[in-house]
C-alpha cells in the first residue's frame, strides 16, 4: 500500500515517538549528569531541563501507546498537545535566530542579575568576574581573581551567546518541523481503517 497505508502511518508514528523518547531520556540524563559532577550548580536550570524531558517523555509515551493500539482518544490529545508544543517551540526558535546583539546583552544581563548560582558557574567556567566590570572588593570564584587579572564576563559570554542562540534556534526549528509532521501523521492515522479490525467497529 506504500506510505499512504495504515501500516506505514503506524510505523512512522511509532518511530517518531521512539525518537522523542530517546531525546527526552537524553535530556534527563545530561541534566542529572551535569548536576552530579558539579558542572551546573543551579537547581532551577537542572530542574527545568529535567521537567521538559519528563514532559516530552510522557507525551511521546502517550503517542506511542496511541499509535500501537490505534486509540482514538489518546491520539486526539497527543495531536493537540503536540500542536501546542509546535507553536511554542517554533516561536522561541524563531526568536533565537532573529535576536540582535543589543537584545542579547539585555537578556544576558537580566539572567545574570537573577541568579547568583549562575553567576558563580559562569565565573568559574569562563575565568572572569562581574558582568560589565570587575569588583575588586567583591567575591569571585574565578581562578584569576586572586591575581587581579580577571576581565568582565559580558564580553566572553557574548562571544558564545550568538553561536549558542543560532545552534539552539536551528535545533528547535528542526524538531518543530518533526512535531508538525507528527501532527499530520496522527491526524491521517486516526482517520485510517485498521485492515485487521472488524469493519463494523470503525466509525
Automatic annotation (TrEMBL):
**Major place of residence:** membrane
List where the protein spans the membrane: 12-33, 45-66, 73-92, 164-187
Task: Please indicate if the UniProt record lists Ribonucleoprotein as a keyword.
Answer: no
Q: Does the keyword NADP apply?
A: no
Which domain of life, per UniProt?
A: Eukaryota
A Pfam family matched in the record = Tetraspanin
> Entry's InterPro entries?
Tetraspanin/Peripherin (IPR018499)
Q: Describe its membrane topology.
A: Multi-pass membrane protein
An example Gene Ontology CC term for this record: membrane
Q: Could you tell me where this protein is found in the cell? A: Membrane
User: What keyword terms does UniProt attach to this protein?
Assistant: Membrane, Transmembrane, Transmembrane helix
Q: Which PANTHER family match?
A: TETRASPANIN (PTHR19282), TETRASPANIN-13 (PTHR19282:SF203)
**Listed name of the protein:** Tetraspanin 13b
Q: Which organism is it from?
A: Myripristis murdjan (pinecone soldierfish)
Amino acid at each position: 500500500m506504500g506510505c499512504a497505508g495504515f501500516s506505514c502511518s503506524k510505523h512512522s508514528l511509532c518511530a517518531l515517538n521512539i525518537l522523542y523518547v530517546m531525546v527526552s531520556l537524553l535530556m534527563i540524563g545530561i541534566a542529572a549528569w551535569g548536576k552530579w559532577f558539579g558542572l551546573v550548580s543551579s537547581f532551577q536550570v537542572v530542574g527545568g531541563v529535567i521537567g521538559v524531558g519528563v514532559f516530552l517523555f510522557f507525551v511521546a509515551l502517550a503517542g506511542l501507546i496511541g499509535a500501537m493500539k490505534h486509540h482514538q482518544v489518546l491520539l486526539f490529545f497527543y495531536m493537540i498537545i503536540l500542536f501546542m508544543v509546535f507553536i511554542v517551540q517554533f516561536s522561541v526558535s524563531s526568536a533565537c535566530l532573529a535576536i540582535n546583539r543589543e537584545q542579547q546583552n539585555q537578556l544576558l544581563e537580566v539572567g545574570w542579575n537573577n541568579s547568583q548560582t549562575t553567576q558563580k558557574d559562569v565565573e568559574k567556567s569562563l575565568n572572569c568576574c562581574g558582568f560589565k566590570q570587575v569588583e575588586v572588593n567583591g567575591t569571585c570564584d574565578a581562578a584569576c581573581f586572586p591575581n587581579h587579572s580577571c576581565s568582565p564576563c559580558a564580553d566572553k559570554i557574548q562571544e558564545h551567546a550568538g553561536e549558542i542562540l543560532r545552534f539552539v534556534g536551528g535545533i528547535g526549528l528542526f524538531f518543530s518541523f518533526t512535531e508538525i509532521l507528527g501532527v499530520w501523521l496522527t491526524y491521517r492515522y486516526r482517520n485510517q481503517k485498521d485492515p485487521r479490525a472488524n469493519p463494523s467497529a470503525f466509525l
